[in-house]
TrEMBL record:
Protein name according to UniProt: Transcriptional regulator
Segments forming domain HTH tetR-type: 46-106
PROSITE patterns: HTH_TETR_1, HTH_TETR_2
Keywords: DNA-binding, Repressor, Transcription, Transcription regulation
DNA-binding annotation, residue ranges on this chain: 69-88
Recorded GO MF terms: DNA-binding transcription factor activity; transcription cis-regulatory region binding
Cited Pfam families: TetR_C_6, TetR_N
Length: 242
């Protein structure tokens, strides 16, 4: 008898039992694959939204608003167009969420710096300025996206509303600190509002230079430049004396 046909001597019942075992294993494997696939498709809502937001930041920073399409975003996020429609009504809703993400991210960074600073007006002002150059928010991709949104704010008032929702508190903190420094250092010639606007412009101008000239001085150099500029406003308080 051929050795390859030895299983002909196996009782039918035994062969059926073996077949059931193999079939059961196959069904179990198929079920596990389906479960894994289902889990991949049903990631948490926050995860999918962040994927799309990060893809939008990437595309806007590379192409700007006019050339960015939902196809670019979905391809970068490796998600279907239907997923975008499920989480965001349209492209504008996605853009609103993207700007909100950037603004909240910046807010969380500067408030953390502020809370961790020494409890003096000068140290807290330095902390707010330094936060603008944190490695998480001060990247070429983030800055390009920020300026793209700012460029559209004139035509889309909602962008300014989203931005101010987070940034107004920062401006008010700087104004309050300037008022404290003027009183403490006896700087009678300093106008609080003008000084606050000037300090805000330091970071904005530095961000613009960092975006336009990526091969130039880095974020830490610009941070130090901004802190040095504070010595011209408040020479009795800056440079900081730890």
């Amino acid at each position: 008898m051929c050795s390859n046909c030895g299983d002909l001597n196996v009782p039918p019942a035994a062969r059926g039992s073996e077949g059931s075992t193999v079939g059961g294993a196959r069904r179990k494997l198929t079920m596990n694959v389906k479960i894994a696939s289902s889990r991949k498709r049903t990631a948490p809502k926050e995860t999918r939204q962040k994927q799309l937001i990060m893809a939008a930041i990437d595309s806007i920073s590379k192409r700007g608003f006019s050339d960015t399409t939902l196809r670019h975003v979905t391809e970068k996020a490796k998600l279907s167009h239907g997923v975008v429609n499920y989480h965001f009504k349209n492209k504008e809703a996605l853009y609103d969420a993207t700007l909100g993400y950037l603004a909240k991210e910046h807010y969380d960074i500067w408030t953390q710096y502020y809370d961790n600073a020494k409890p003096t007006a000068a140290h807290r002002l330095a902390a707010i300025i330094s936060a603008d150059f944190d490695k998480k928010v001060c990247t070429h991709k983030r800055l390009a996206a920020w300026f793209a949104f700012w460029g559209q704010a004139k035509y889309r008032p909602n962008y300014l509303k989203i931005h101010n929702q987070y940034d107004n508190e920062r401006y008010q903190k700087i104004a309050k600190i300037c008022n404290e420094l003027v009183a403490d250092g006896d700087y009678p010639d300093l106008d609080i509002e003008r000084t606050t606007r000037s300090i805000e412009a330091l970071s904005d101008g530095s961000w613009l230079c960092l975006m336009l000239y990526p091969g130039g001085p880095d974020r830490e150099v610009f941070r130090d430049d901004c802190l040095y500029a504070l010595t011209r406003f408040f020479p009795k308080h800056f440079p900081l004396k730890d």
